[in-house]
Amino acid sequence: MITHHALSLPTLETNNISPSHSGLLFSDNTEPLTSLHTAAARVLVINTGGTIGMTLHDNVLAPKANAFVKSLRKLPILHDEMYAQKICLYHYYGENSLVLPPDKDSKRIVYTIMEYSPLLDSSNITTDDWKNYESYDGFVILHGTDTMAYTASALSFMCEHLGKPLYSRFTGTRVPIYERRTDGIDNLLGALLIAGQFVIPEVGLYFHHTLYRGNRVTKVDNSSFNAFSSPNLAPLATAEVDISINWDTVWMANTTAKFRVSTELNRNVGLLRLFPDITAATVRAFLQPPMQGVVLETYGSGNAPDNRKDLLEELKKATNSGVIIINCTQCLRGKVSTSYATGKVLIDAGLIGGGDMTSEAALSKLSYVLAKKDLDLEAKKRMMSQNLRGEMRAKLYRRFIQIIAKSLSISCKRIGDVEALEALKEMGSNLSLEDYDGRTPLHVACCEGNLKAVQYLLSQEATVYAKDRYGATPLANAVHFRHKEVVWLLRKTGAQFSRDELDEAGTELCSLSASGDLESLEIWSLAGADLTKPGYDGQNAIQVAQSVGKNEVVEFLALLMSNTTKVKQIGVVHGSPSS
């Protein structure tokens, strides 16, 4: 969440409502939200300000608090009021929640608007505004276009270990959404649909029917609806008659560490553009303390005049004193190269080549890396040279390998052939590709209980949040087939049940309780299920066990629920689940 003030995502708990009480609140013409099995996703929309929600005040566009949601309710393409009333949407998620009309597969997306206080024009946004959204795993940020490329770049670096999908879609408009000729409706709707329907674990920027990688964009036009460009990387997705995802381009995190947000950024960075006859005094003044990092925009392929010894000397002094200087081209397209002598002299002066990074990405990356207090200067320089979030050119997968690998990887999984999976990976395969049913190799591995295969897939790029066509996650598959060690490993990586799976957990827990299946109850607990979740009749697992006289189940459930820490440790010995 981007805010100076603490905001919380509306949930059943924050509204003091539980499904067990919902029957008292609905008439014959309503149905509880827990029956909303067609919901594709719940998305948090954070309104930071910008043109999309501005209104006219004294013939000047300015942000206006609390006006945005009211306007969206009047737009049928962005809100189905009849359906919202039918399922008592506002009762469950608050007055700031809306629901999209169904798509062609009868799927819906429920989204909640949280408003930044105060609303900002994006020209006023600083690095203090980029923090505090650890609690969210799916959101769209409404942001002004002036600094959107900077914020999207910064957020891409701040989101570390993005093995879980963070549906972050920056979007905005050139014309307020209230106006007749606005691009706001298409931009918001497209961002919501992509965030709610596809597992793309990246910070993206959606604008004018196109989803870009957030750290690859730059604003190129201040008067066109097509305001942004990604000069050195093809779009991640395009929304035309259908939404087409360029999976070859999607960045996958090769990590099993849990997702976290690094909110520390270093402000002592700057952007310096070379021009003919720039003086050494100007460069010297710019590089003085407290400056710690500089993006130097150079000519062509990263060139600077090699006959300007005075400039090169100032740059050399700065790098020797610990200032990190990144060499980026002034050109819209292309990358920095050392093929020319005029480019090599900058390397000799201690500058680091920025490859094909945009200036916005390089500046944000510097701010992020310099804030790493546990790294020494050399480690920070190495980090600046590495491709951290797809901000620099990387080898793209060949499409024909991807097509072959899609079926081969699923087949390899069924027999647990890790060596074959490794070979596919070496050929450039994306091991998160789906089959016809939307099942990834990780889905199949979790069903089979092949721990080594699961470990390998997680160590590469397999996402634990992919859903098959029935809405099942790999974690749900592992729980269903009672593979405790696989469940433990998935949870350690950061896997969690989807909202729909959590909604349905109560009935399953009650059934297991009635049958006295302690092992399955333990696995559900290990997987993060709420053991107090009521079933369809309003009773929870303990109440069911009491009603059928299974005292051992009552005692076991009480033990599991006695302490959150204990629950996580049940069945775990020396960091692994007991057999």
Automatic annotation (TrEMBL):
Q: Indicate the segments forming the L-asparaginase N-terminal domain, all copies.
A: 42-249
- Establish whether keyword Hydrolase is in the entry: yes
Superkingdom, natural source: Eukaryota
UniProt binding sites for substrate: S122, T145, D146
Active-site residues, record numbering mapped to chain: T145
Task: Tell me the InterPro entries matching this sequence.
Answer: Ankyrin_rpt, Ankyrin_rpt-contain_sf, Asp/glu_Ase-like_sf, Asparaginase/glutaminase-like, Asparaginase/glutaminase_AS2, Asparaginase_C, L-asparaginase_C, L-asparaginase_I
GO MF terms listed in the record are: asparaginase activity
Where does the record place its ANK repeats? 437-469
On whether Ion transport is a keyword of this UniProt record, the answer is: no
Q: What is its EC number?
A: 3.5.1.1
Q: Name one GO biological process term.
A: aspartate family amino acid metabolic process
- Please give one Pfam family short name: Ank_2
Top-level enzyme category: hydrolase
Write out the entry's keywords from A to Z.
ANK repeat, Hydrolase, Repeat
Q: Where in this chain does the record put each Asparaginase/glutaminase C-terminal domain?
A: 268-384
Q: Which family does it belong to?
A: In the N-terminal section; belongs to the asparaginase 1 family.
Protein name as it appears in the record: asparaginase
